[in-house]
Design goal:
The complex is a heterodimer of chains A (504) and B (194). Chain A is α+β, with helices and mostly antiparallel strands and 504 residues long. Chain A is built from 11 helices and 16 strands. Helices cover 43% and strands 32% of the residues of chain A. In chain A, a hairpin with a 2-residue loop joins strand 10 and strand 11. Chain B has 194 residues and is an all-alpha fold. Helices cover 74% and strands 0% of the residues of chain B. Chain B has helices spanning 3-20, 24-45, 49-65, 76-94, 114-120, 123-132, 135-145, 151-158, 162-193. Chain B starts with a helix and ends with a helix. The chains are: A alpha+beta (504), B mainly alpha (194). Chain A binds chain B through residues 1-5, 7-24, 26-28, 30-32, 34-35, 38-39, and chain B through 22, 24, 27-28, 31, 35-37, 39-40, 43-44, 53, 56-57, 60-61, 64-65, 107-114, 117-118, 121-123, 126-127, 129-130, 141, 144-146, 173, 176-177, 180-181.
Chain lengths: 504, 194
């Protein structure tokens, strides 16, 4: 026995400490494999996180763009719309400008008629030239006066609305010196004055103007008129709403009247859309049903890859007011997933019949190849398989409208109830030398599942009732699509759909 | 600190950086440098070689996983060793915790010196003796003798009382003494036969 009990501690410490023992090579191989697995998992997580981050960045950028455009286009207009009617002087000035343009147009229209009047007056003058000068002068002056009154009448008859009367007055007052000049001057001078009164702003004699130049000038004037249309319309509304010669024009709240007169949002609208989906599944292991090959989330992630997925449908919007609307409709989503080759085993189904049992993330299926009759425990190779899931969905969402001229941005949030329309798996079984293709229903799928919905739509108005729409959206499964299966599947989609919206 | 030590430190620093970056070659080099030493640590805590290999494997996976957390404060070897010990303890905790009541026969009272025992018994024999200890005794013995822990710390780690830790250490020593005596006697018999 060791003399001192504590020597035993020292004995073992001195004997073992610092000793290097040979390690089998298999240990490093196992460590290396484990590190590879962990690296793959971390890449997947990083990619998943990056993907989500990318979607968040895109949505954020989109919303920032919406806000920027809204500030640029909508905010300035709001200032103009909200502003009260300017003070009398500027209002009258604007009114005058509009009315001058209007009167110019009116004058242009009647230039031919006025021309005829001048010709008539010419003829009158010519006829009277045979008489004495005085008589001629008198007659001409009277004719001119008559003509003037005719022209005046012309003006007055063409001036339908009260403010133009005011303008006419003004014109009269403006032209008074000329008219007075015309009254006192000889015939040709009078003519010039008349021509001036009724001619175009560039003061060309009416007779000398060609039709095309008249039309071009009319067009120019029309454009100018359109640009002042808002003021003109407001003015028209003012005349309807208030006494013709109201002294205090600022009492008129044109903007509010104009707003009331401006088109109200349509109550209903229908959107037809279609577009691809990009899915990223979320799998969870259901330990209670764990065991069969192909029946855990790691295998599902490794062996399954989405092939195609797209959504199409009709969305119905009901506008609560100009900003908010409720959206529902019907959508059809089709999703096809490719599954890598795997081994399947023959097992009895619920009825006791022996089939090859195929497992995937959506559920399981009993494959019934026509020419192959397996025995319990037999195995076969399932060549590349494909699952096809179709859901009919009913969304319900609330949308907010951000209008910026012809563009609109419509963020929305809600949920979607998805009803299973079809769940099938297509596979090719190789058993010995036999190969057989089969298409079977997937067992374990729920008849319906719920997902949350977030979207940021953008629209461009082609006409008053028709818009082109682009709807990037995300749908996130709240409940699994299957039950009582080794793997619970929660499909998430990022969709980019385009369509046409018609308002009623 | 000598120049060669500094160079080694710099090389180790670079090696660790490469391992953190995920370079498999660097990881292999690090493993080869420290695995033989750590395997001995794992053998002390394990019942057999297979169990020691599992502990070593788990330990090194954790080393590479958490290598970015090493702050270059203290010995790197000590840092890896701590991870190995923790892996061994985790393995011990996963198994059922039954206090082994081992009948300890009184060994033959033949005084043997420390040096004599060392000369006769090699490292492998000593390791085998430690492996023969019941699990809880082995844990207490290793933590007390090789890791230098106090009974209070051992008791917290293993979920036992301080008194039980002391008792277990006493029993472990008694068993080891018996095993040493048996080995020494067996050797003497072999020598006498020759």
């Amino acid at each position: 026995m060791i003399r001192d009990i504590h020597d035993i501690d020292k004995l073992f410490k001195d004997g073992i400490e610092g000793h290097k023992e040979d390690v089998p090579d298999a240990v490093w191989e196992n460590i290396s494999n484990k590190l590879d697995e962990k690296q793959a998992v971390s890449f997947e997580k990083k990619y998943y996180r990056l993907r989500r981050l990318a979607i968040a960045v895109v949505l954020l950028g989109f919303l920032s763009g919406v806000y920027a455009l809204y500030s640029k286009f909508v905010a300035p207009h709001e200032d103009v719309v909200v502003k009260t009617v300017p003070k009398t002087k500027s209002f009258e000035k604007a009114n005058d400008n509009a009315l001058k343009e209007n009167s110019t147009t009116v004058e242009q229209k009647k230039s031919v008629v006025s021309d005829e009047n001048i010709v008539d007056s010419k003829n009158n003058l010519k006829e009277s030239s045979d008489e004495t000068n005085k008589v001629k002068e008198q007659s001409s002056s009277s004719t001119i006066n008559n003509n003037n009154s005719d022209v005046k009448k012309e003006h007055s008859t063409t001036e339908v609305n009260a403010p133009t009367k005011t303008v006419v007055k003004k014109i009269k007052s403006n032209n008074l010196p000329e008219r007075s000049e015309a009254n006192n001057s000889t015939q040709p001078k009078t003519k010039i004055v008349v021509e001036k009164k009724i001619s175009l702003p560039d003061e060309k004699p009416v007779e000398e103007q060609s039709i095309t130049s008249l039309l071009s000038e009319r067009t120019t004037s029309n454009i100018a008129l359109m640009m002042n249309a808002e003021v003109f319309i407001a003015n028209q509304l003012n005349t309807i709403a208030h006494p013709l010669f109201a002294s205090d024009a600022t009492s008129v709240n044109l903007s509010s009247i104009a707003k009331q007169k401006i088109k109200t949002p349509a109550s209903f609208s229908l959107t037809a859309f279609a577009g691809p989906d990009f899915s990223f599944e979320n799998f969870k292991d259901n330990d209670h049903f764990a065991g069969p090959p192909g029946g855990n989330r790691q295998e599902a992630k490794r062996d399954e890859q989405q092939s195609t997925s797209f959504t199409t449908g009709l969305l119905l919007d009901y506008n609560l007011n100009s900003k908010w609307s409720i959206q529902s409709g019907i959508m059809l989503t089709t999703s096809i997933t490719n599954i890598a080759p795997s081994t399947v085993y023959a097992r009895p189904d619920n009825n006791g019949r022996i089939h090859f049992e195929f497992h995937c993330s959506s559920g399981y299926s009993y494959i019934e190849p026509g020419n192959i009759a397996p025995q319990a425990g037999d195995s076969a190779k399932a060549m590349g398989s494909k699952t096809k899931l179709q859901y009919t969905s009913v969304p319900l969402a609330v949308r907010y409208h951000l209008n910026a001229g012809r563009f609109s941005f419509l963020p929305a949030a809600g949920f979607t109830l998805n009803f299973l329309a079809q769940g099938k798996v297509e596979t090719t079984i190789q058993h010995g030398t036999d190969t057989e293709s089969s298409e079977d229903n997937i067992t374990g799928l729920r008849s319906s599942y719920l997902n949350g919905l977030v979207s940021v739509g953008a629209e461009y108005k082609l006409t008053r009732n028709v818009s082109l729409t682009l709807i990037p959206s995300g749908r996130f499964a709240v409940t699994a699509i299957n039950k009582n299966t080794p793997v619970s599947s929660y499909p998430n989609y990022f969709s980019l759909a385009g369509g046409v919206r018609v308002s009623f | 600190m000598s120049e060669s030590q500094t160079v080694r430190d710099i090389e180790l620093h670079q090696l660790i950086q490469d391992c953190v970056a995920g370079k498999r070659q660097a990881q292999s080099r690090l493993y080869k440098q420290f695995a033989p030493l750590m395997f001995t640590v794992c053998l002390r805590y394990s019942r057999n070689r297979e169990e020691a290999e599992e502990t070593l494997q788990e330990g090194f996976v954790k080393v590479f996983e958490h290598l970015n957390q090493y702050k270059y404060a203290g010995s790197f070897e000590g840092w890896i060793r701590k991870i190995m010990v923790n892996c061994a303890l985790e393995k011990y905790r996963r198994k059922s915790q039954l206090h082994a009541i081992v009948p300890i026969e009184k060994a033959e009272e033949q005084p043997v010196s420390h040096e004599e025992a060392l000369s006769v018994l090699g490292t492998k024999e000593l390791l085998q003796m430690v492996q023969q200890l019941p699990s809880v005794y082995r844990m207490v013995f290793n933590l007390y003798v090789f890791e230098g822990m106090k009974h209070r710390e051992i008791a917290e780690l293993l979920g036992i009382s301080e008194g039980t830790s002391k008792s277990n250490l006493f029993d472990a020593r008694a068993i080891l003494q018996k095993l040493i005596a048996q080995n020494m006697n067996a050797d003497k018999k072999n020598i006498s036969c020759l």
